[in-house]
């Protein structure tokens, strides 16, 4: 009898959880849960917050999403994602056109530009070379990069690849493709992160830090 009651109670509880929200709200939670950094629990909290703040949060978010969805384009020059073509970076006359920073993905461009330390322009490859994943040079915006360099007016190309085997392979390939052009090729330094403690770092990071050591003073 107790077991039967438990099963009934469990079934009712499961049913209760299933009908806590309508199908439409549950669909919204599931869509948000697919976003990077959000799981089902975080997505549910976000939806509850939006419903509670309908006028001040939900409606402005819907309007912003609608606007971006209608105007979203890929920059025909650098490959950045924006609501205008050329993108805001390429169209900015204050940017130094002689410096070009090559990145793997748009997220890398945004991360670097957020620091406000690079005054030039960018070029997004759209990925990195990977034999394992079958990504070849023709699958990336490498020919477009070579075309920009060949057109002249660029003094330095910064190869800002990620510190992975594929990223470094991509950087070496790009260096070979650009070898015949009168540009200075540079690469981001890899080593100790700011605030990093030695005993928490992996051997590869420590080795690179030692190789990239510089004089004091």
Instruction: Give the class from helix and strand content and strand pairing.
Output: alpha/beta
The ordered H/E elements are HHHHEEHEHEHEHEH
Sheet-strand content, in percent, reads 5-15%
Radius of gyration: 25 Å
* Tally of DSSP helical segments: 9
Question: How are the strands of the largest sheet arranged?
Answer: 4-3-5-6
| CATH fold-level name of the largest domain | Dna Topoisomerase Vi A Subunit, Chain: A, domain 2
Task: State the CATH class of the largest domain.
Answer: Alpha Beta
Give the beta-strand count. Answer: 6
Overall shape: it is globular
Which percent bin holds the helix content? 40-55%
Task: Describe the 3D structure.
The strands form two sheets. Strands 4-3-5-6 form a four-stranded parallel beta sheet. A two-stranded antiparallel ribbon has the order 1-2. It has nine helices and six strands. It is globular and about 60 Å long. It has two domains: 2-71, Helicase, Ruva Protein, domain 3 (Orthogonal Bundle); 81-211, 3-Layer(aba) Sandwich (Dna Topoisomerase Vi A Subunit, Chain: A, domain 2), CATH 3.40.1360. With 217 residues, it is α/β, with parallel strands linked by helices. Helix content is 47%, strand content 12%.
């Amino acid at each position: 009898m107790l077991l039967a009651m438990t099963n009934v109670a469990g079934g009712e509880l499961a049913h209760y959880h299933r009908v806590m929200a309508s199908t439409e709200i549950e669909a919204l939670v599931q869509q948000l849960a697919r976003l990077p950094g959000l799981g089902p629990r975080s997505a549910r909290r976000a939806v509850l917050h939006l419903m509670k703040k309908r006028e001040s949060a939900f409606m402005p978010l819907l309007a912003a999403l609608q606007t971006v969805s209608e105007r979203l384009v890929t920059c025909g020059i650098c490959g950045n994602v924006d609501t205008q073509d050329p993108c805001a970076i390429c169209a900015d006359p204050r940017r130094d056109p002689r410096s070009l920073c090559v990145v793997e993905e748009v997220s890398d461009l945004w991360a670097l530009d957020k620091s406000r330390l690079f005054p030039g322009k960018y070029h997004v490859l759209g990925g990195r070379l990977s034999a394992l994943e079958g990504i070849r040079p023709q699958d990336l915006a490498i020919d477009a990069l070579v075309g920009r360099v060949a057109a002249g007016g660029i003094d330095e190309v910064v190869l800002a690849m990620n510190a992975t085997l594929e990223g470094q392979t991509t950087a070496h390939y790009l260096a070979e493709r650009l070898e015949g052009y009168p540009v200075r090729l540079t690469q981001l330094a890899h080593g100790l992160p700011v605030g990093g403690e030695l005993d928490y770092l992996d051997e590869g990071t420590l080795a690179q830090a030692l190789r990239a050591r510089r004089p004091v003073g």
